[in-house]
From TrEMBL:
The chain holds residues 424 to 747 of 747 of the full protein. The gene is ptsP. It is found in: Cytoplasm. This is phosphoenolpyruvate--protein phosphotransferase. Belongs to the PEP-utilizing enzyme family.
Amino acid sequence: AQERYASLRGLPCETLCGTRVGLHMNAGLMADLPSLEGSGAEGVGLFRTELQFLIRNQVPKRGELAALYARVLDAANGRRVVFRTLDIGSDKVLPYMKPQDEPNPAMGWRAIRLGLDKPGVMRMQLQALIRAANGRPLTLMFPFVAQFEEHVQGRDHVLRALDAEGRLGHPLPERVEIGAMLETPSLAFAPRQFFEMADFISIGGNDLKQFFFAADRENERVRRRYDSLNVSFLSLIEQIVARCAEVDTPLSFCGEDAGRPIEALCIAAAGVRTLSMRPASIGPVKHLLRRVDLREARAVIAEARASGAQSVRSAVVDWLVRQG
Ligand code: PEP
Ligand code: MG
């Protein structure tokens, strides 16, 4: 199977109906970088910057981070890298951070909430990213944005950092994109202005699903109860697709489901055109997507929905089996 996927490496991910789906990889450690060449990924759709913070026993220094980020951009060799600003708190507790005694850490003081309330580390990280870009394009996104205002404030921090770096004489990125992760259902209902302001949106399906079904992603018992191909969840994804399309904002999906071929197929059928996944999933996802017609997939999904099915999975699997 590995060989079969290797032979797909240079081929585009294009469905039988001619739809291109961008396949990018998720990363976070330097050890992930060789996969950029090996997997055939078009870029890094999610670089989880907190991993560099989690493997240390103190906050990394700005210079050290800038050097690491520069190595990531060097390895990407012009391909797009989406740096997600620190997503700590919840399941990602830094060993050197004062533990917060929170009853519900996943819904607690985490990610951009922490970044906005105590902006010191985020500012330092933004400076490191700008210096690492050293004139090259820079793509950033904020984790766990739950309302428009959080995106506005995060973006203001980026604009201020750019201004300050420029005044210090550092070369500014040729272009800066500032996106938001959509991982709380609330953001799908944000004002139109949010969708206009965001340079792109990436669905964090792991968290989005957890909060949509109120089912802890770390708790096997409840997690397995709700299929990602549940018709309600697919409707939410379609609504997000529609809201982004209305204002021409690029949309991607970077949760674990993007790397599962059947899920990836249904997410693409819902209208998402960029997926980001662990590198080893790129081959299997591309293999399936190149063999399907999304119009047929949409018809199968619509029929399953009309029948009152809770999940479209068995209908999609049956259809794929019939296709051989
Ligand atoms: C997600 O929530 O889907 C996501 C990609 O972020 P993480 O898994 O790091 O929370
Ligand atoms: Mg998340």
